[in-house]
Every structure is written in structure tokens, then in C-alpha cells.
């Protein structure tokens, strides 16, 4: 198995939403770009939800997220994995969330791109930190092309909750869980 190191966070201090994956896949790590696999649904969904062109160059897509107060990172700093599937992840080491939260005090929502990201966060991070006040957790279906069990329309509908949170920071969804 290969020992992998994730990417640095993409954020501004005024971020209200933190979107977390588990660990970038092989294509993303090779490109040093979040969601670099051409069939991953992440960038087309975010472009549709936030109103920017999915065809923008990578730095401009990151800027579009930041303008919309969305931060992007992964739960894991290091892990071992053969291939790109989350199910192959072993020996996980989480990122420094305590430090991240100290510099991002306006966070109101932590959203997980897939079940593995949420499970790793709940197991490795949540027991050891204090989350920003009034922060909520939200599990979302994975944007991975390997997640074929959900239609693109249904996935986009669930991801729409991110925009609702950005437009109305006090909005509560039935599927949101308080961070406390």
C-alpha cells in the first residue's frame, strides 16, 4: 500500500461552509488538485449551485468557492491506500482541525463529501476538538463517479443544502445534525 499525503486547505478566514472529502484520489494527487478526476461530479455540481463556469481554470474555480465563503479540505492528512477507493483507506491520520477552526470562526456548516469523510471525522476528529459555535454537520452523497447508486439529479438536490446554508445561515434542515 502507498502512504499518501493530502492537499492543503483552500479557504479564507470568512468561510461559512467547510466541505470535507476523505483523501484525494490518485488523479487528484497526481495533479495536486481537488477533485481532479475528469468524471468526478464535484466541479460541475458546485458550478451549477454557485453560478460559475465549470470550465474555468482550476485556480479560478477555487476562487469562486472562496468568494462564496466555501472552504475545501479533506479529513485525512495521511493514510495508506491502494488505488483511489475510500474503502481501501487504512492507517488514517487526520488533519489539524483545531488549528483550522481557530482561524475560521465564522464556520456554520461542515459538510462531508461521502460517507467515509463523515465517518473518519466523527471517529478521529470530533472526540478531540471543540467545533465553532453554532456549527452543524451535514452528510452528503459522494461526488465520486464510483457512487453510481444515486442519480445526478438526486445528488444535486441534496447538495443544494449548501447553498441554502450560505443564503440563510440560520436555516436548519431535517438532515442536519448539530455539532455539539
Automatic annotation (TrEMBL):
Its EC number is 3.2.2.15. It is an enzyme of class 3 (hydrolase). The keyword Transferase does not apply. SUPFAM superfamilies: Uracil-DNA glycosylase-like (SSF52141). The keyword Cell inner membrane does not apply. InterPro entries: Hypoxan-DNA_Glyclase, Uracil-DNA_glycosylase-like, Uracil-DNA_glycosylase-like_sf. Keywords: Glycosidase, Hydrolase. This is DNA-deoxyinosine glycosylase. The lineage of its organism: Bacteria, Pseudomonadati, Pseudomonadota, Gammaproteobacteria, Alkalimonas.
Amino acid at each position: 500500500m502507498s502512504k499518501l499525503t493530502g492537499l492543503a486547505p483552500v479557504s479564507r478566514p470568512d468561510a461559512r461552509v467547510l466541505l470535507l472529502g476523505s483523501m484525494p484520489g490518485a488523479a487528484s494527487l497526481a495533479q495536486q488538485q481537488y477533485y481532479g478526476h475528469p468524471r468526478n461530479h464535484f466541479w460541475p455540481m458546485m458550478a451549477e449551485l454557485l453560478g460559475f463556469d465549470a470550465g474555468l481554470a482550476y485556480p479560478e474555480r477555487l476562487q469562486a468557492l472562496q468568494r462564496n465563503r466555501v472552504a475545501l479540505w479533506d479529513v485525512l492528512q495521511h493514510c495508506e491506500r491502494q488505488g483511489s477507493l475510500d474503502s481501501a483507506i487504512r492507517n488514517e491520520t487526520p488533519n489539524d482541525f483545531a488549528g483550522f477552526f481557530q482561524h475560521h470562526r465564522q464556520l456554520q456548516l461542515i459538510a462531508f463529501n461521502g460517507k467515509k469523510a463523515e465517518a473518519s471525522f466523527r471517529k478521529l476528529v470530533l472526540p478531540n476538538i471543540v467545533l465553532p459555535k453554532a456549527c452543524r454537520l451535514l452528510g452528503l452523497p459522494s461526488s465520486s463517479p464510483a457512487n453510481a447508486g444515486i442519480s445526478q439529479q438526486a445528488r444535486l438536490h441534496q447538495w443544494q443544502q449548501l447553498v441554502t446554508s450560505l443564503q440563510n445561515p440560520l436555516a436548519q434542515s431535517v438532515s442536519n445534525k448539530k455539532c455539539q
